[in-house]
Amino acid sequence: MVEASRRHLLAGGLAAVAGSALARPALAQAFPFKPNQRYPDPAVEILDPSFAKYRIYSSSIEQLATGMRWAEGPVYFPQGRYLLLSDIPNNRIMKYDEVKNSFTVFRENANYANGNARDRQGRLVTCEHSVTRRITRTEKNGKITVLADSYEGKRLNAPNDIVVKSDDTIWFTDPLFGISGEWEGFRAKPEQATTNVYRIGTDGKLTAVITDLLNPNGLAFSPDEKKLYVVEWRGTPNRSIWSYDIDAQGKAANKTKVVDAADFGALDGFRVDRDGNLWCGYGSNGALNAEAADAGGRKVFSLRGKPEDLDGVMVFSPAGKPLAFIRLPERCANLCFGGPKGNRLYMASSHSLYALYVEAHGAV
């Protein structure tokens, strides 16, 4: 019955399925989606022939859930075969169960949770983006443990994205988004002088590893964990991905630009596959044209580029070469690999959660 309702949802809207498990949690616009009926899916655009081996010929993009205001921070739990993701403005964490094909609220009043990760013991680690402005771990019994909420006696800014390394250290970015307005939390004055990338050691010590990026955002390690990639959200002149060499003590060196989003694109959250490729959430950066254009008798400053041509997932080689673009009808903020074989790409995109099976697996 759930699958039948889902097909009806994709074909015609939420009204006819208002009682289904997928429809009940919606608190925002529900985005209707018409999947492509042809194989291979034309939404998967190959920019370099080397990407062809990662495309599954008979796989297409699916919309799994909708009704969020700004979907972020997906993380997959293989033991339970479910995915958690944040709906930041609605201040909740959502749960997609791929066995039951259900979409429900996992946690209300989530302190505007943003990035989520799974530690080596299978516990949820979360960036609480506003209000509490801290990193927490959800224990197996449901208890919340605070891992970090201040640095050098001052409150963190707004923890954003997070990753757990194989040595159990936890790395996260701390830009200003959760305290810079009233959309993803509450406006507040920052106490830190810089926007940093932090490391929580196994002893609980918090260290500022990278301090020279303006609003660092998504982050991920290379497969061998010798390089850390970080998105600089307010890079000049464009958003960028930087790589740093990470030594055994967790220190960063040799800052190198890997990707420059020079086509008015906005890099956000991303993941690295086992071959070292970077699968990046993508969309318009919101920049306006310098000159206004006539639109029905009004002078309008339109967006640079075409947002509809930027929304989706960009895939880059380890050297930053564009390999593919997965076109979505909504801007993708973040993604992760999951599924029983680890080859299902989950994409948290504005109002909705999408998925695509690929011949790639997440590095971590």
Percent of residues in helices: under 10%
Helix/strand-derived class? mainly beta
Biggest sheet strand line-up: 1-26-25-22-21
CATH architecture name: 6 Propeller
Query: In the residues, how many domains can be counted?
Result: 1
CATH superfamily: TolB, C-terminal domain
Low-pLDDT parts are: 1-21
Global shape = globular
Strand content bin: 35-45%
Number of helices: 1
Strand segment count = 29
Q: Please provide the ordered H/E string of secondary-structure elements.
A: HEEEEEEEEEEEEEEEEEEEEEEEEEEEEE
Radius of gyration: 20 Å
Mean pLDDT: 92
What is the fold-level CATH name, i.e. the topology? Neuraminidase
Largest sheet, in brief, is: 5 strands, antiparallel
Terminal CA distance = 35 Å
Protein described:
By secondary structure, this protein is mainly beta. Helix content is 3%, strand content 40%. The chain has one helix at 2-12, and strands at 44-46, 62-66, 71-77, 82-87, 92-97, 102-108, 113-118, 124-128, 134-138, 144-148, 150-151, 154-155, 162-164, 170-174, 196-200, 206-210, 216-221, 227-232, 240-246, 252-260, 270-272, 278-282, 293-295, 298-300, 312-316, 322-327, 334-338, 344-349, 352-357. A 5-stranded antiparallel β-sheet has the order 1-26-25-22-21, with no helix packed on it. Strands 2-29-28-27 form a 4-stranded antiparallel β-sheet, with no helix packed on it. Strand 8 (124-128) and strand 9 (134-138) form a beta hairpin. 43% of the residues are buried. Residues 70-351 form the SMP-30/Gluconolactonase/LRE-like region domain. This is Gluconolactonase.
